[in-house]
Design goal:
Elements: H1 2-8, H2 11-24, E1 26-32, E2 35-40, E3 45-52, E4 62-71, H3 77-85, E5 94-100, E6 103-113, H4 121-144
Antiparallel strand pairs: 1-2, 2-3, 3-4, 4-6, 5-6
């Protein structure tokens, strides 16, 4: 699997992705050559991009995108069930809970396969994710307002 990943995630691909990311978001940190923590200008949200080999599960290299939305540390089980019930309607995006700095965050995710990535596509995917989120934002905020 290592050879397959190396062929798909080349330094040239990482350079292309880096240039694209630098063109539309503010990079806050780049802990490795295949991971970027970013701030999305104009919407005051943070997130990340990463290239992953996925050797332990789906065995297909992907580019993952995530947007950190809300602190859900104090959400009840019922609230969490209501939040994650939206996943079936997200069409290519999904919510998950991620522990960041000892707080649980609601995170919106999307993956695309490395082999089908086209330069310029990351911005379009982020816009799609934000569009899907906006459809359910009122419902999510109502669910969380009781926290």
């Amino acid at each position: 699997m290592e050879d397959h990943y190396d062929k798909l995630v080349s330094n040239q691909l990482l350079d292309t992705i880096n240039q694209e990311i630098q063109g539309f978001v503010k990079v806050l940190d780049r802990p490795s050559e295949d991971c970027w923590f970013v701030e999305f200008p104009g919407i005051k949200l943070v997130g990340f991009f990463s290239c992953e080999d996925n050797e332990s599960d789906i065995q297909t290299p992907t580019i993952s995108m995530a947007i950190f939305l809300y602190d859900i540390t104090d959400a009840t089980k019922s609230q969490l069930l209501n939040l994650f019930a939206v996943n079936g309607d997200m069409h290519g995006c999904w919510f998950l809970a991620e522990c960041i700095d000892d707080r649980w965050r609601l995170v919106l995710n999307r993956r695309i396969m490395v082999e089908s990535y086209q330069p310029g596509e990351l911005r379009d995917n982020i816009m799609l994710m934000l569009g899907r989120f906006s459809i359910f934002q009122d419902r999510i905020e109502q669910t969380l307002s009781a926290i």
